[in-house]
Every structure is written in C-alpha cells, then in structure tokens.
Amino acid sequence: MEFSQIKKVLDIRCSGLFEAEIDRHTIRVLPENWLTVAKVLKADADLTFDSLMCLSGFDLGDSDMLGIACHFYSMDKGHMLEVIIETPKKNPTIPSIANIWRTADWHEREVYDLYGIIFEGHPDLKRILLPDDWEGHPLRKDYVQAETYHGITIKKDKTYWE
Amino acid sequence: MNTKTHIDQSLIKTDEMVLNMGPQHPSTHGVLRLKIHTDGEIVRKIEPIIGYLHRCFEKHCENLGYEQIVPFTDRCDYIASMHMNHGYALALERLMGIELPPRVEYIRVIVGELQRIASHLVALGTFGLDIGAITPFTWMIRDRERVLDLFEYLCGARLLYNYIWVGGVSHDLPEKFIRRTKEFLDYFTPQIDEFDQLLTFNKIFIERTADVGILPPDVAVNYGVTGPSLRGSGVNWDLRKNDSYSVYPDLEFDIPVGTGQMGSVGDCWDRYYVRMLEIRESIRIINQALKAIPAGDVHAAIPKKVRPPKGSVYSRFETARGELGYYIISDGKNIPVRLKMRSPAFCNLSVISEIAEGWMISDIIAILGSLDIVLGEIDR
Amino acid sequence: MSEIWTSTMEIFTSYGSMISLAGVAIFGVMAVNALVAVYFERKVSAFMQDRLGPMEVGIFGFTGGKNFWGGIGQTIADALKLLTKEDILPDSADKKLMILAPFIIFIGAFVTFIGVPFSSVLLVSHFNIGIFYIIAMSSVGVVGIILAGWASNNKWSLYGSLRSAAQIISYEIPAGLSLILVVVVAGSLNIHQIVEWQADHRWFIFHSPMTVLAFFIYFISGVAETNRTPFDIPEAESELVAGWMTEYSGFRWALFFLSEYANMLIISILASVVFLGGWLSPMELFSVFPDSWLILDGVWWGAFWILIKAIILIFIMMWFRWTFPRLRVDQLMHLCWKILIPFALVNLVLVCIWELV
Known about the structure:
Chain A is of the alpha/beta class. Chain A contains three helices and nine strands, in the order αββαββββαβββ. Chain A has one domain: Beta Polymerase, domain 2, CATH 3.30.460. Chain A has a five-stranded mixed sheet. In chain A, strand 8 and strand 9 form a beta hairpin. A three-stranded antiparallel sheet of chain B has the order 1-2-3, with no helix packed on it. In chain B, helix 4 (102-131) packs antiparallel against helix 14 (361-371) and helix 11 (268-292) runs parallel beside helix 14. The radius of gyration of chain B is 21 Å and the shape is globular. Chain C is mainly alpha-helical. In chain C, helix 8 (209-225) packs antiparallel against helix 10. The termini of chain C are far apart. Chains B and C meet through helix 4, helix 5, helix 7 and helix 14 of B and helix 6, helix 9 and helix 13 of C.
C-alpha cells in the first residue's frame, strides 16, 4: 500500500490522533495518543504491521524536544511506515509498546540508556549498554562527560603526546 | 529416543541456583554475560547482560564526516565487515540519489557473497566446537583462510577492509582476482560435502541439536529476529529477494528455509542447515557474477564531498546475520545529526530469554551457538 | 629374641624392597605412558585436523626430522613446566580436600596396575581374582573426582564432578557385565587362565557373536569410564572451561592427566587381554608358520603383542575424540541404562545358552 492509502486507513480508524507529513512519508503522534495508534497499526486487517524494524531515539539539538522514530513493516502486505514521537526534554516520557512488539523491549531500554526517555509500562526499564551506575545520558547533544568514574579519569590523557 | 526435558516448573519446589556464564567464557562468542537461574541442570530463567564491548560508535559518528565513518562500521561486526560497509554505503546512496556504475555493483555482490561464506564458516565451526566436535572447526577455519587471502589480495586487509565506500569501492579488482576466485570455488565446493559427512548428518550432532530450542515463526517475527535464524523457522524472508537492491534481481538463487527435516521446524539443526545451504547458494551467486561482470571505472560515482540533502533515510541490508538497518538524519552538513545502526544480532539475542526456558545448560550453549551473534555489533 | 627381631627385619626388608621396587616400576610405567600418550595424541589430533602439531622442541639435540618426529621433546618440556608452576590454592576453597583429591585419583590408577599384566610373567602380583580386583580398584578414582569438584568452591567445577561421578558409576555396570560374560565362558577370574583358555581355543572375540557385542559394549563403557569424548561432558571445554579440574594448576593438574592416561592404558590392556588374546601372537591364531620361531611367542614377544593391541585400542579412543561431538548428560545416562545394560544382560543370557548348546 502506498503512503496515501495508509493515511486514509488511519484517518478512518484513529482520526485526529496523528499528523501526517506526506513528503517524508511519516506520521507524527503525540505521546498520549501513541498506545492507541500503535494498537491500530498492529491489529488492523488492512495494515498488519507485524514487524517493528527499528526504534531509535534522536536529539536534533536545535529545540528542547527529544524524540523517537519507529519504523514498521508488514511482512505479508509489504508496506513500510515511519512514526515520530516527540517529548519535551525536561520530563521525557513516552508510553511503551514493548508488550505489543517484543522487539521494542531492548530498543526502548537502549533509548532510555542513551537519551533518558522514560517508557511507561515497560516490563524492565534499566540500562542496557552502559554500566548500571553511569550518570547522564550520553547521546543527548548537551551531554557533559563526568570527570571520573569510580576513580578512573574519563577524559583522554594527552600529557605525553605534545 | 525421547530425551526432551521440558518440565512444568510449578510442580517442583527446590532451591534455585544462580549461575553466571561470565563475560569471559569459551563459548559465549564474545563478551556476553548470561545470568542463568537453574534448578539442577534445568534452566528456569536466563537473562543476557550486554554492554561490555560498547565503544560509543553512534556518538563518534556525530563528530565525523560521512566518508570517515566507513572504517568505524567495519569494526561493529568484525566477522562480516564488507556487509557493514555495504549497508552504510547503500543508505547514503539512497539519501543522496547516487547512481552506481554496474561494475561497482557486481564487485560489491562478489565481495559480499565471499564475506557471507567466510562468516558462515566461522558460525558453523564455532557451533560445532560448542557441541564438542573440534575437527570441523579447524577444517572450516582452514577454508576461511583462503577467502581471507583473496581479500588481502584485493584490498590489503584480512578482517577490517574499509573497502566499500560511498559511491563506489576503494580499489578495482586486481588482474588475477577473478581467476583466483574461480580456483577457490573449484576447491571449496567439494569441501562442503565433507563437512556434511562429518558433522551435519552425524547422529550425535543431530541428537544434540534437533528438537532443541524451537523458535516458532510468530515469536521470531515479534522479537525482530531476521536472517538465517528466521529462515530456520520456516519463514521465507530474505532482503536480497524481498527488498531487492544492487544487482540481485538479475541473479538466480534460491532461499533455503528450514523444514524440520531432522526434528521440528525452527530447532537448532534447522538454523545450522540453513547456513550450510546458504553457503552453497553464495557459491552459485559468485559464479554468475564472475561471468557477468562488466568493465568500467569504479571511482566514477564517488562524490567529491559527501553532503547529503536535508532529510532522513532508513535503509536495510541483508548481512550474514540478518537485517542490518541504518537510520540517518542529515541536516545538509557533512556530518550526520543522528546515525543509528540497527544490528541483527541485537534482536536475535533478545529472543534467547524466550526460547531457552526449560532446557538444560548444554542446550543453552547449543541455542546460543545457533543464533550466531557477534558482540561487536550488539554493543557497537 | 634377637632371632625374632632379625627374622622380622629380614621379612620387612625383603618385602619392603619388593614393594618399593614394584612401586617405582609402576610409577615409571605410568609416567612413560603419559609422556608417550600425550605426544601421540597431540600428533594424531593434529594430523586429523589438517595441521602439524608440536614441531619445535627436539630431544638430546635431535630436532626436525619428518613431520611426525619434529616435536618429540615437547611433553618433557611440558612436564618440566608443570612442575615449576605456581601452586595456586584459591582462598575460599577447602585446602585439605583440594590437596587430597588428586592423590586419591592417582592412587586409584596406581593400585589397579598391581593386577594388570604386561606379559605372562611381567606383572606385579598374580591375583587369583584378577579381573574382579581390577574393576574394583578402578572405581576408587570417583571419590577423588567428587572431592576435587567440591573442594574447588566453584559452581562449574561442582557441576562437572557430579556429572562425572554419575557417569563413571553408571558405566561400571555394562563394563562389568561384559567381563562377566568372558568369565562365564572361561570359568575363572584369573587372568592367566583366561589367556590360556584363549590359547587352547581361540581369541574370545571370535568365540561367538555375543562376545563381539560384549567387546563393543566393554569398549564403549571403557571410553565413558575415562571421561573421553564423546562422553567428556564432565570436562566439556566449551561449557565448563575444564570442568572439575578448572581450579587446579601445576603438578596437581599433571597428576590428573597422568591418571587419565593411565586409566586409558588399563582399559585397553584389559580389553586386549580378555577379548583379543592378551600376550598371544596373532600368528598362532591364524595358524601361520606353525611350530617355528616365526610364531613370535615368548615372554618379551608377549609384552610386545599386548602393547601393540593396547596401542591400537588407544588410537581408536583418540580417533573417537576428534571425530564425534559430545553427548548431553541425560543422553549419556539414557545410553547406559536403557541401551547398554539391557543389551549386556540379554547378551549374558544368550552366551549361557550358547555354552550349553
């Protein structure tokens, strides 16, 4: 199905809950509407997005919003969709879709680890790539490295280079 | 003989032992930590803990130019570096709309399929090693050496190539490369039959792996499993056919799918056998590509400055382990705003907590080996 | 008084010297066997895996040579290295038991050698219950294995030693049943009488189809007894690092290996004595050159024949190790209890019927 057809189906099933960007083939959803739209995407007989390909966080750096981009694919219908959800940096929370697509479990943990977005309803939200006691969320554009970690200096020691 | 040990956990109340297959262990294929709650020999719960090889790949990419990122992608999945390079180049070429000369496409296909053979040889060899068969491992590594010799002749490196650049490849094929590749394929094709005789149809191997770690296809799709692990569960899904890119539409090859020949569909033996058959299919592809490769200039389409237009792209590529995805957000500068690499082994590994309950510790090793993970691309 | 004193001293010194001579001889045999068997295994495994094996270390100035003899001094170098290694005893391990365990395993193998013949006269003690003694003494090692795994204070070692104990105890039964079959036919537990029976009739393996099956069952159980692949789950390298031996280093580890190869030798010699004619020459069997010196019989030729047969069986054990993957624990137990033991029992009954008929 083309993007315009997908948009038509979504207009019928969950009108008003999303915004479509037609030139980029994406839809934008507010965090409070996300779970409803996600359930429609999975369950609707015309859409059947049964595979979540990728869930990535992003920080464009020029506004005070963090966001996630989800890429869905339907294995039997063969169409693709990108969904963008943005949330303010001060208190970032997004409902979790880990119980709908199990792929999201570890991807959401990674986004929490590197961006600090809290996913409500996630079965086990804890850091995945960094150590459990790391401070800060590194992939944010305003991330400042700590000086030491357990007594080890983090910054590269260039005293013998120059 | 029925030696399956799936038992109902609620009937037995005994003390639980928490075992740690720590980051350093002979058969966790890298620095992976598995926390296993066992009841005697039977596993109740398994929790993989990753992050020991995290090298901040994505943060580095936000400070590097697009061409400079290519060597970094090599180091993510070091067993199949050509595929990592190729996936990245494909993403940027889609974003920038670059049209490639056909010689470049054919070179990329030949090199990619040779890399697939090498990667599968490592996967199968280490799988046999985990089960206890030591000799097939040495034979497979010996044959992989010849592939690495071909790559060294081509671009100077044995493992981390930095070969497939945005818009082309770094070196053209040297003069004897095609002849040496043909010699290698002539030598290698009967070797696969030897491997089959020694390991694939060995009764003890079948007993260790058939009917063990069954992955149902809907669970696999839900967890995002792709690649030979998904095909072993009977799902006919390969991005080279379903999402065709490069010159794969012009080449003739089949997609091997697990059929439950020795046990059930989706057990460890099926995933192993799918990889064996894929090696044969790769040989077919390389033979066709060697015949059809045209002449041309491989550096013709390489842009002077890689400056993609504003926008984003998500492109997927079929590596030896599954679907590799690159999500790149660009704002017109020569460094990316965000580069996310969706690695296939990341999703493949997450399924182990679902399918590993109720089996014995030896079976956990078999299941982990059959999923074929590389920690470099999981942790990035 | 002084006569009693001198006579007891005489007995003591004569027995004492005999015992110590025998002890030194057995230890010498075990050490030489370990050296030769380890080198042989490394070379055999290397050739099967399409590589060369140890090639560098020569002996007494002899280096190089053809591919097989290149690294002949390797095991001696390894033995010297192991002797000079640091003796690590983990802090939270049970030190006394950890020190005791390798010696128990070693003693098990050592004591078994008392009844094992190398020829019709080259043996330490002429037991009337030879076979029974050997089977009984070779089970002593299990205690050492359990102690080693427990004392290491390491969950993985514990797993390995418990698996090993279950395996060794279970596989004693089919091994014993196959040997009883031979005892029933020959009519005696005495090793000399068994070999004489074979000299009078024919080698046991050709006696009836049942004894062929008994030979296979005995050999497979023997491979399982010594924890070799495909039954090497206790020391499964890829799962448990080195199983119950993980925490050991240096000389104690060398003792484990010494006893493993000694066990292999015991099993092979016993199989060749009981089933393959022991120190009898094959020329005699096939009636080649009857009644001439070419029959190659006699005390030293007897030792030669026994060793050749044992070496062929050891080679087959090594061949198994590098060809087969390993069985899982429950498959191992299933093989023993549900396949080998019923076959061995039925075999025994059939042989009794054969004898009557």
